[in-house]
């Protein structure tokens, strides 16, 4: 099969296309023939070395959607022919204090698709059968791919932000995750302010129903102390501090990021006093994934997608790095 392998090359040449054997599913696994795979900012962090290397000659990608074509002898679900998604959470130990208390996203032995095991930048991938996510027939594969990380972890951040019904939610950074969660928040009755450096991102936010689009440098003046909650999607400590300035007393800022640049010094009065809450969000649970996929289908959430071929994965990553992707990037594999 064709696959894009991370070889640690320079900017724009992070991945090399190779022919590699089709993997065989283990007893608890399924083999999925992939149709699409989203390109997530975490993939960029991995190939650029922002995260520690976990696997040599890694096939990245953790937003794959495709058809189950084979399964191990212990698998009773999903069935061959089912369309499923391969999310970031590949597996957990199932027995630690976090797993048994519904917090499997904090398991110390968790494994990640496209990071600790090979992922979806390929024609085929294997996955733990109990961790794949069925994709409803109402959602296309290209739409569903960004749901599998950007959507799911954004949804977890939205839940934990606890923005009140009819409340005002700020989305700082408007890429793949934010453009999905903006739709969810608006359809659930929140008013949404989009905050970004990019005019194209601000325009997309307004098109999707946000009632305010604010250039990042103007955020403190226009939004200071006015948001009930905020989610920070931009991997920037500076943006994080701006978000804290913009929430009301008692407001919550959630941060669904695996990597962020230096936060630097915070001022207690400016950023943290008045019972403001700052909460980081790590990965997701399977419950989050199933909830979001059902909600997305029910509410009619759709991805704004720029498609690339599998061989163009480097170009997609570079376009993402340069903030030229509006919405989400998706690799079309078949």
TrEMBL record:
The keyword Zinc applies. The keyword Oxidoreductase applies. It comes from the Archaea. Its cofactor is Zn(2+). Transmembrane segments: none annotated. Residues 1-25 are annotated as: Disordered. PANTHER family: ALCOHOL DEHYDROGENASE 1-RELATED, VACUOLAR PROTEIN SORTING-ASSOCIATED PROTEIN 11. Belongs to the zinc-containing alcohol dehydrogenase family. This is Zinc-dependent alcohol dehydrogenase family protein. The lineage of its organism: Archaea, Methanobacteriati, Thermoplasmatota, Thermoplasmata, Candidatus Sysuiplasmatales.
């Amino acid at each position: 099969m064709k696959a894009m392998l991370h070889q640690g090359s320079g900017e724009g040449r992070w991945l090399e296309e190779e022919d590699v054997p089709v993997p065989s599913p283990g007893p608890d696994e399924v083999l999925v023939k992939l149709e699409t795979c989203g390109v997530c900012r975490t993939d960029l962090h991995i190939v650029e070395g922002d995260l520690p290397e976990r696997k040599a000659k890694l096939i990245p990608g953790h937003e794959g959607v495709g058809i189950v074509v084979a399964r191990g002898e212990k698998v009773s679900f999903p069935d061959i022919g089912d369309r499923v998604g391969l999310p970031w959470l590949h597996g957990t130990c199932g027995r630690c204090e976090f797993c048994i208390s519904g917090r499997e996203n904090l398991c110390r032995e968790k494994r990640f698709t496209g990071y600790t095991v090979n992922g979806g930048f390929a024609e085929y991938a294997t996955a733990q059968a109990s961790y794949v996510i069925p994709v409803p027939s109402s959602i296309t594969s290209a739409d569903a791919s960004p749901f599998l990380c950007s959507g799911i972890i954004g949804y977890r951040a939205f839940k934990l932000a606890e923005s009140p019904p009819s409340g005002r939610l700020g989305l700082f950074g408007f890429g793949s995750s934010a453009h999905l969660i903006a739709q969810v928040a608006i359809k659930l009755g929140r008013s949404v302010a989009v905050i970004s450096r990019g005019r194209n991102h601000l325009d997309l936010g307004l098109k999707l129903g946000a009632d305010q689009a604010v250039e990042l440098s103007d955020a403190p003046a226009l939004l200071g102390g006015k948001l009930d909650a905020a989610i920070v999607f931009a991997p920037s400590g500076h943006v994080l501090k701006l978000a804290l300035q913009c929430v009301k007393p008692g407001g919550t800022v959630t941060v669904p990021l695996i990597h962020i640049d230096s936060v630097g010094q915070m001022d207690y009065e400016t950023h943290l006093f008045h019972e403001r809450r700052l909460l980081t969000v790590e990965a997701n649970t399977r419950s989050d994934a199933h909830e979001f996929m059902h909600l997305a289908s029910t509410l009619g959430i759709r991805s704004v997608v720029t498609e690339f071929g599998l061989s163009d994965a480097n170009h997609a990553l570079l376009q993402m790095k340069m903030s030229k992707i509006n919405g989400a990037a998706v690799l079309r594999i078949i």
